[in-house]
Amino acid sequence: MVGSCVAALLATATGTAHALDNLPPEQPLVRDLQSQNKACATGDDTPYVSAPPRLSAVLYDPEEDNGPSESSPVKGEFEAWWTDAAGAEQRRTYTTVTLSSGSRQYWTMPGDIPPNTVVSWHVRANDGKATSPWSDEGDGSVCSFVYDDVNPEQPTITSPEYPRMEDVFRVDGVGVYGHFTMDSPSDDVVSYVYDFLGGPSGTASAERPGAAVTIPYLPLTAGLKSLTVRAIDRSGRSGAQSRYDFNVKPGRAPVARWKLDDPAGSRAAAAETGTAARAGTGVTFGGPAPAGTGATATVGLDGSGHGFLTTDAPVADMRTPFAVSAWVRPAETDRNMTVASQDADGKPAFSLGLRSQNPGPGWSFAIGGARVSGGAPEIGEWAHLLGLYDAETGRAHLYVNGHEVGTAAEAAPAGTAGAFQIGRARGTNGYRDRWHGDIGDVQVHDRVVVPSEVAELARHKPELLGHWSLENAVDGTSPEQSDRAPLRLGTGASIYRGSDSSCLPELDPDCPYMPPPLVGEGHLSLDGETGYAAADGPVVDTGDSFTIGVVVRLADSEPAHPMTVLSQAGEHTDVFKVRYEPSTYAWQLVMPEKDEVGAPEKVVSQITGADGGEGQGHRLAVVYDDGTDTIKLYADGYTSAEATASLPDGRHSSGALQIGRAKAGDGWGEYLHGDVDEVQAYSGALRDEDVTGLGFGTDPCLC
After folding, report:
1. What's the rounded Cα separation, in Å, for the pair 220 and 248?
2. For the whole prediction, is pTM greater than 0.85?
3. Alpha carbon distance 117, 25 (integer Å)
4. I need a surface site. Which of 5, 361, 638, 664 has the fewest CB within 10 A?
5. Contact assessment for residue 534 and residue 551, using Cβ atoms and an 8 Å cutoff
């Protein structure tokens, strides 16, 4: 017994004591191992790499080995093995430098690693005193990789809908899906990188290595298109690029269209395409049409059981993409009303219309139990609606006045198809949700109507109301270019014409220099005290969509007070005004929230420095779009989010258009000191590309 105790004490005092003081490094975890940044795996999940890889592992040594100020150094011992072509096992080993515990340690494999061979490896940690278990011992796992040194072969591309241009010069068409199949002879291809000229682009993955991949493509514009594709194999290698050229026709015409411009007293609506629609006795033909749309007349429906039109046959094929659209003007908004629908079994297969809901009424497109809602219907206001079902994506979309509203919804259309209806929807006990109001130009397409086409269908083409070039004045008035009402000049306002060519400063040193007018041969000069110009009455209807542009140059580099260049007033204050605010160095569009003196104001702005009488000035424009309930301020052709505001209800104004001053209580103020030119006014909202053409002496082409 005494001998045993002595032996134990001796053992404690010698080498065994050192072993008890040093804990061995921890076994490397499989989750911390990588083959060229790919996770450790083996068997069917073995990763493929495109070059001899860099293996890595995070290695740990317990901190109990050392004092508080000491690190825990550890190095890695890697080992890899494989069977060569002769059936002999080959092994390679590598020991890393010593790094702190928790560091990732690396081994770049030698260049003699054979391609297309499964190489296995493991690693262990060594702290200089002890080693950890190998990473594949116990609950661990061996790691494997395969080095692939061959690029995949060039892929083929085919499409049944859009054959190559050299085979068929041009095929259908904008809004019609095509399907492109990409395939490579290489059996290890896992994905294809594709790029349609002008978009979209992306990566399509194969269901299994070597399998072909098919992607959908929706042409948004007509003309020459190009698709390029590269095959990517399991190692990440890419092959030679393939190119596929095809030519797309414009979008085909609607399969059914009722302009609803038939003569008053008609009992049926003629179809431009499709089948004529018989009308109930609650339908009145010859109604007013939305301005600037090309429509010449509409129908009025009285909301009764007799207010409808029907083809007595289906029009839309619910199994394919389709769209239905119309111009509408509701006479009420406090109940559900249908613009167009198609019968199914005791219910509508789809319905487009108005829905009474909280917090307020909204436009609606419903199909197969799904519904998309958005927009804000207003009594007596025209709106363009388009409901779209995209069978490729299985989603329903709703557009109001050319803009998508609501959230696209997953939809499963009914399998049966009954008669097409205008002004009512099928219910369990007959028809319901009858329309009360006006409807015009109902169209049904058997394809996707793309966003640019939706915008064009919903467009109100602006109409020029006046263009004052301000190049001359007779008896205190400056004429409008087309002999519409002139602008009358007040005291302190004059037309500046520049040099009269009686002398030339470059030849005669005594000839004073006269700078040229802003645009053309003259401009309006205002003294900043009493000077202004005004029309005899309102020029734009501020309660509806309008655009007004002007060129202006401030005479001062540091104006002492705000100065207004454009305004049009209601009874007590300006409905809108465009002014320069020197405290913020910005042109502002100011809209009082009420027609009251001192009412709170909604303001948007564009920052620009004051001109100081030099330069070409700035081209400003105000655009109010009643369809989207937005108003924008443009400076030199551009606008921004900061220069845009919501205006749900435009207020009508009765005051005359003013150039160079604004309402101030019962009088006028904010007189402009500077020069003004090229005042242009339109009914309707100009598009961004049209606004850029304002202020150059001509009217932009509103094609």
Report:
1. 9
2. no
3. 32
4. 5
5. no
